[in-house]
Write a structure and sequence with these properties.
- By secondary structure, the protein is mainly beta.
- It folds into 2 domains: about 150 residues, TonB-dependent receptor, plug domain (Ferric Hydroxamate Uptake Protein, Chain A, domain 1, Beta Complex), CATH 2.170.130; about 140 residues, no CATH class.
- It is about 10% helix and about 35% strand.
- It has 5 helices and 19 strands.
- The radius of gyration is 24 Å and the shape is globular.
Length: about 325
């Protein structure tokens, strides 16, 4: 049994509603200035849907694109938030681990996150393919643009893009300007998000370094409630019916956040037509799994598939209920 603080998501929900109202004005990966002051024409939107910089209007692909500024304006902090602003796309956190995401674009979806299975929507970060769902549910850090390509993209992006592709590009080092940024936010349940970005032109027009980092933490808002003398409602399940429980799972909190993100980029430009780019990224997540609640347990029964036989479903109810430690990733 869990005790859920229902008020926790309300602030995020209200922010999402406000952001949704501005969706029709989004969609720009990289924008140039209009031709003349006062010109009411559309801005030129540059995307890389075909591996080169092109005007979105010239690309024969359905693309939804956002700049880093678009993401900040809509409070899009995690990859899964993109689904709220992209028509025809759904993103949800997987039930087994908070580090994995399930993508669905135009009805194409891979619901299992086994390492032996390929996703139907490919994810590319700075041109590098992330082959599996684990670790994709990270936080956006110093992002230049995000592009969602809808429909099969196998010609340019490979076989694992039957539903589409998600392209995430981070900011590259600036050869000319020394700059930086620091931000700090605080919220309910001791939520803290600290971000720092530093750009250093080591040799003007030749060598530049860009460093960025983020620390994000929040206490869990779901509390595990196990009263003294509690016994299982699934009496037919021998492993679950054991009581008293080993350890004390009462009071454990779930749905917390505990993440570290670091990125470093070094650009070396020996000639005007050649750039050597070295990039390194580190992401760590240590969070309790999402909370679950058993609402109903019926009498013992047998099914043709033993997975659904109430007497043989120990794997579905073991873990914290039996006193084991909270699942972590």
């Amino acid at each position: 049994m869990t005790r859920l603080n229902r008020g926790a998501p309300l602030a995020l929900a209200s922010a999402s509603i406000l952001a949704l109202a501005s969706v029709p004005t989004s969609a720009s990966a990289q924008s140039t200035d209009r031709d003349a002051p006062g010109d009411e024409g559309l801005e030129v939107i540059i995307v890389t849907a075909r591996k080169v910089n092109e005007n979105l209007q010239d690309v024969p692909v359905a693309v939804t694109a956002f700049t880093g500024g678009d993401l900040e304006a809509r409070s899009v902090n995690q990859v899964q938030d993109i689904g709220r602003f992209t028509p025809g796309m759904s993103i949800r956190q997987h039930s087994q681990t908070p580090s994995a995401l399930t993508f669905a674009v135009r009805g194409q979806v891979q619901t299992d996150i086994l390492v032996t299975l390929d996703p139907s929507v490919g994810t590319y970060v700075d041109g590098v393919y992330w082959a599996r769902a684990y670790g994709i549910n990270g936080d956006f850090l110093d992002v230049e643009s995000v592009q969602v390509l809808k429909g099969p993209q196998g010609t340019l992006f490979g076989r694992n893009t039957t539903g589409g592709a998600l392209i995430i590009n981070s900011n590259n080092p600036d050869m000319d300007e020394f700059s930086g940024k620091v931000s700090l936010t605080y919220g309910r349940f001791d939520e803290v998000r600290a971000t720092a970005v530093l750009n250093v032109p080591i040799i003007t027009d030749k060598v530049a370094l860009r460093l960025s980092g983020q620390r994000y933490r929040r206490d869990g808002y779901t509390e595990n409630d196990v009263r003294a003398g509690t016994t299982t409602a699934v009496a037919a399940n021998t492993p679950v019916s054991q009581a008293p429980f080993v350890g004390n799972p009462d009071g454990l909190r779930f749905d917390n956040k505990n993440r570290w993100s670091l990125r470093g980029k070094l650009d070396i430009m020996p000639t005007e037509n050649l750039t050597l780019r070295f990039s390194s990224e580190y992401f760590k997540m240590n969070e309790a799994a999402p909370a679950r609640e058993i609402l109903l347990a019926t009498r013992p029964f047998a099914a043709s598939n033993p997975t659904y036989t109430l007497g043989g479903t120990a794997a579905l109810f073991t873990g914290v209920t039996n006193g084991g430690p909270p699942p972590r990733v």
